[in-house]
Amino acid sequence: MSTDSMEIYLNDHLAGATAAIQLIERMQSDEADERLAKQLAQLRNEIEDDRDTLLAIVDRVEARQHRVKHAAAAVLEQLGQLKLSKAATGSTELTRLLELETLYLGVHGKRALWRALRAVAVRGPTLATFDFDELIDRANHQLEALDGLRIEAATAALVV
């Protein structure tokens, strides 16, 4: 039942989810602030749940998973570590800000995914059982939380 376009689209988002989880795990291992570490853990759990839903959608539409894209996402996340490291930015605070902004942009992309799939779901029964409104609401909540963290990080990193 899968179309090439749907397969590519879903696999791109799966790769993004994988990279986001890896980024959060790295951020957690580097984070001394218990409050932020707790918020990152909650976000990671939600993104893992979202990835599981996306995997269920991949199965439902009978799409193949592209392992190469997932491997490429892992490599890109590792390259991102170089750009987002304290050695590259010169500042732990700036690194945190850039990491949070990366996650913020990723969640925007995920919300766009859920909105696109919600539009597709009304045209046929294949995706009708997924609650895209709930997924969109969760993405909105994640964006709100990340924006607050991002603003806090900006005030710490960009003091002039």
Structure description:
It is built from 6 helices and no strands. The chain is mainly α and 160 residues long. It has a single domain, classed as Ferritin (Up-down Bundle). The longest helix is centred in the middle third of the chain and has 30 residues. The N and C termini lie far apart (56 Å).
Q: Secondary structure elements and their pairing?
A:
Elements: H1 4-30, H2 34-60, H3 67-83, H4 86-89, H5 92-121, H6 132-157
Q: Which CATH architecture would you pick?
A: Up-down Bundle
Q: How many β-strand runs?
A: 0
Give the class-level CATH name: Mainly Alpha
- The figure for the number of domains is 1
Rounded to the nearest angstrom, the radius of gyration is: 17 Å
Class computed from helices, strands and strand pairing: mainly alpha
Strand content: under 5%
Share in helix: over 70%
Succession of helices and strands: HHHHHH
Low-confidence stretches: none
Characterize the overall form.
elongated
The major beta sheet can be summarized as: none
* CATH-defined fold name: Ferritin
- End-to-end separation in angstroms reads 56 Å
Number of DSSP helical runs: 6
Mean pLDDT over all positions:
88
Coiled coil: 33-64
Keywords: Coiled coil
